[in-house]
Amino acid sequence: MTILSRVIDRGLQKSGRLVTLNIKLMDKPGQLGSISKIIADLGGNVVSVNHDRSDTNVDINSCFLRISLETRDRDHVMEIKNALMEEGYSFSIN
User: Fold this and answer.
1) Of 24, 22, 31, 91, nearest to 59 (Cα)?
2) pTM of the model
3) pLDDT, greater one: 57 or 43
4) Which domain, by its residues, includes 7?
5) CATH number at residue 71
6) Which of 13, 57, 69, 82 is the most buried (most CB within 10 A)?
7) Per the structure, how many domains does the chain have?
8) What radius of gyration do the chain's Cα atoms show?
9) Residue 37 C-beta-side C-alpha neighbours within 13 Å
10) By the 8 A CB rule, do 44 and 69 touch?
């Protein structure tokens, strides 16, 4: 079952239906809500969230937010990516 789950996840990732965004944020109230709203307004479904304040690769007032999303396809991922960039968010996609 574990291998089957990995095969399915990799297939979803390759087709753009499952994506993880690593977003660098200022560590202040409302950031998660703003990002979640953008994703939800565009029809993305958040499946997991990890908020990391302890990463030594960011400023002391910053953090990394790792969000895994279910999307329709690669075009949908680009739509979400562009909307986040328009709002000034900096990130990488896994």
Assistant:
1) 24
2) 0.81
3) 43
4) 2-93
5) 3.30.70.260
6) 69
7) 1
8) 14
9) 6
10) yes
How many whole angstroms separate alpha carbon 67 and alpha carbon 42? 15
What does the pLDDT look like over 61-74, one tens digit per residue? 888 899 999 999 99
Residue 51's SS3 state is strand
**Which residues lie across from 91 on neighbouring strands?**
23
> Contact 71/21 with Cβ under 8 angstroms?
no
Place of tokens 């990799």: 10
Going by their DSSP bridges, the two strands 90-93 and 45-52 should be labelled as: unpaired
CB under 8 Å, gap of 24 or more: what pairs does 26-29 form? 26/61, 26/62, 27/53, 27/61, 27/62, 27/63, 28/61
H helix intervals, the chain: 2-14, 31-41, 74-86
Structure tokens given for 84:
């986040």
Residue with tokens 């958040």, as numbered in its chain = 46
The residue ranking higher by pLDDT, 70 or 15, is 70
